[in-house]
Predict the 3D structure of the following.
Amino acid sequence: MSIAVPRAAGRPAQRRGPALLWHQIRYEQLTFWRNPQSAFFTFVFPVIVIAIFGGLFGGIGESEFYYGRSALQYYVSTIAAVSVLGSCYSQLAIVLAARRQNGILKRVRATPLPASAYFVGLLAHCVVVSVVDVLLITVVGRLYGVSLPASSQLPALALTLVLGAAAFCTLGVAVASLIRNAEAAPSVVQFVLFPLVFISGTYMPIHSGPLNGIAAALPVKPFNDALLRAFTTDHAGLPWRDLGVLLLWGALGAVVAVRRFRWDPRAE
């Protein structure tokens, strides 16, 4: 005869799978919003940039310089892209470096939470922040007369945002694995990001063939181009080449992150 052993009073049921993941996403969201200054500038900075660009370039119509688009059509797309970079690459790499140095990652590793749930939770949090950023930028662009994306492009836009966010998150984790301490994190992150953003035409279209060829093989320009296409055309279909480049860089970032990521602080 078997005897059922009751669960100890006050002992919580073990969380599994989706419940653990949801708990981690909720934790990351609560942590983010409990730092209102950081949250405020995360959303306000790209909005201010696109508002300034609206005042500077709002009167420039469609031209060959902007690949047949108006200046603001171009900048709504590229500023949306750079806001995703900030949320999914820059902030993630800096946060992970700080958490590792403060011993938070070491304590997380000692809990029953699987590493996969921890990083997928971070990814989901970054995607949520990125979507809010892109929506705010789109609204400000609409105030300056920029059309909303065509309904036929919404699936491509959603896929581009999710794949781009995932790729830049894995690259952020990979870069965090190379950072020795939290003080060095902002410098290392910007050293990688700053030249990529400029050669990829984020703030000014690049018409140099050789430079465009180099930038097209790197992750930022394909992301810019895929968003520009999604925001400004009504042709159904996906930018397979741009998405393929993002996928390859995301896979590369994942490989580096898995092989080199450390949970413990580095010895100085």
